[in-house]
Amino acid sequence: MTDPQAKIIPLDRVPAWRNPMRQAGLRLVVTNGCFDILHAGHVLYLTAARTQGDRLLVGLNGDASIRQLKGPGRPVNSQEDRALVLAALACVDAVCIFEELRATRLLQTAEPDVYVKGGDLSLDQIPLEERQAVQRAGGSILIMPHLPGRSTTALLDRLLSRQGQGPAEP
After folding, report:
1. Which residues of 15-27 are buried (b: 16+ CB within 10 A; e: fewer)?
2. Percent composition of the chain: helix, strand, coil (DSSP 3-state, to 5)
3. Between the N and C ends of the chain, which has fewer C-beta atoms within 10 Å?
4. CA dist., res. 119 & res. 141, Å (int)
């Protein structure tokens, strides 16, 4: 069994991790997100993403970028904890924390064969610089179907409403 901490790699080590795959003709799938409170929707999404290639790299938004994206009450779990939980999943081959709002630098560095995004987005909603980074690497973009009702925000809203605290930050 692989030590999950060994699967967490800094951005500057991604090329050294990626190059042997390229030489062996293996296809790299990259996805990214907050993965604040891991739930069934995340697990099904990551499992499906992994089937699109030989290895799966998960780009994980850092804490500061999540606060900008989701508001001051988020993330619930630290980036280190979120990375460790993701790395423990069998379908995940590596996790890389990135601090920017967009995954552009991660995509430029990893040069994925396939970039997978959740079905809550359309291709046009994926930032142009991310699409261009994937295209420059010769990769393709795949939108996975979204599982309705399964989101961290919905989960937090249910928990807080049970405690009488009102809805969570978006």
Report:
1. eebbeebeeeeee
2. 45, 15, 40
3. N
4. 12
What's the pLDDT tens digit per position in 26-67?
999 999 999 988 888 889 999 999 999 999 999 999 999 999
pLDDT digit string (tens) for 53-104? 999 999 999 999 999 988 888 898 999 999 999 999 999 999 999 999 999 9
Ranges of beta strands (E only) in 27-153 are 28-33, 55-61, 94-98, 114-118, 140-144
For residue 122, what is the DSSP state?
-
Residue 31 φ then ψ, to 5°: -135, 170
Write out the two tokens for 109: 């560095």
Give residue for tokens 């390229």: 22
The CATH number of 4-162, from 3.20.20.70, 3.40.50.1220, 2.170.120.40, 3.40.50.620, is 3.40.50.620
Per-residue pLDDT, 118:
85
Strands 28-33 and 114-118: parallel
